[in-house]
Amino acid sequence: MTKKIITITGAAGNIAYSLIFRILSGGIFPKNTKIQLKLLDIPESSKILQGVKYEVEDCAFESLDSIITTDNMEIAFGDSDYILLVGAKPRSKGMQRSDLLLDNASIFKNQGQAINQHCKDSTRIIVVGNPANTNALIVSQHTPKIPTHNITSLMRLDQNRAKSIFASKLNVSVPSIRKLVVWGNHSATQFPDISNVQVDDLTNLHDKYDDNWLRKEFIPRVQNRGAEIIDYRGKSSAASAASAVYDHLNSIVNGSDDWESMGVASINPYNISSEIFYSYPLSVTTHSNKIIEGLDISRETLDYLKVTEEELIHERDIIKDLL
Ligand code: NAX
Question: What's the DSSP call for residue 89?
């Protein structure tokens, strides 16, 4: 029997309410692995967190070793194998985006410092709370003992959305689509890129769509899918976000034979600033995430990549005093 410790922050929130149950249902770790869950939220959410704990216990999951609920970062992060930083402050009515950035930046700075103090250096960290890429940058700056490639931010929801919308246009199954990635920020400037896509048993892909559909429908629909969900549901994506965190964690634990989109520390490929976390096409193995370099980038694609880079540089400028 092996044991893995997984910490989830924002554990009383909406995403966690799906995520915890997905992870414990299995599929990521070998069957003989027991999971100790450490659920962190703010003191005001302690009663809700207790209710979540009772519900988890009521599922009688075979995979569950034990469950700890806490508002204490030392307890939450100590010895964790995987830390899923989901918790963040939501944007309240009338609040400026820069204020939200700064409020969340200080949460992620404190959490980074606590992680650095209490975690082993093999800990893998996935940043979900928004602005996810910039929060990942902050965490990386405050966790000097953790290798930067152990820290990634969630872009898998955007990739899953793009694959699903593209599959529906082509009338093929989602798993038959490969090498579809999303570049840049988890925001409306992201660039869903189908220029390298391969679809099983399908050649002449371009006969199935035209550039007008690509520019006017596909790209904006993926970029604004989060807002579309809020429009319909009245709340932000939660189950699909949790499913994407599950997929991202699965890729990190087991590797992937497809290209994956994750926010990672930019090391300047494609001439993107090395001072930000940016989503690239990655080759992911159990031990590393490698940016896929040397792709042919058209002039038009480059323009998209620059717009989303500029937004991330702007976010970095707003929070730079906390780095
Ligand atoms: P909720 O508002 O339902 O839950 C957030 C939870 O975080 C709350 O329980 C809150 O008490 C807790 N929290 C706040 N400050 C905390 C702190 N300092 N320490 C620990 N917990 C803290 O939001 P939810 O819908 O679960 O979304 C969570 C975050 O994910 C948000 O920032 C959201 O914007 C972000 N998302 C990121 C996505 C991505 O692809 N990167 C997609 C989905 C989602 O929008």
Answer: P
Residue ending a domain, choose from 135, 153, 171: 153
Domain that holds residue 62: 2-153
190 near 222, Cβ under 8 Å?
yes
CATH of the domain at 90: 3.40.50.720
- What's the confidence (pLDDT) of residue 226? 92
Which amino acids are annotated catalytic? 186
- Strand 82-85 relative to strand 33-40, pairing: unpaired
- Give me the mean pLDDT over the 21-40 stretch: 97
Q: Give residue 160's pLDDT.
A: 98
Pocket lining: 238 vs ligand 1, CB cutoff 6 Å: yes
**Residues 220 and 72 grouped into a single domain:** no
Tell me which of 8, 18, 20, 42 to substitute to probe ligand 1's pocket, judged by most ligand atoms within 8 Å of the beta carbon: 42
| Angle in degrees, 0-180, between the axes of helices 156-170 and 239-254, rounded to the nearest 10 | 100
Ligand 1 and 14: CB distance under 6 A: yes
Question: Are 64 and 184 members of one domain?
Answer: no
User: For residue 133, what pLDDT band results from cuts at 50, 70 and 90?
Assistant: very high
Which atom from ligand 1 is nearest to the alpha carbon of 154?
41
Q: Is 223 in the pocket of ligand 1 (CB under 6 A)?
A: no
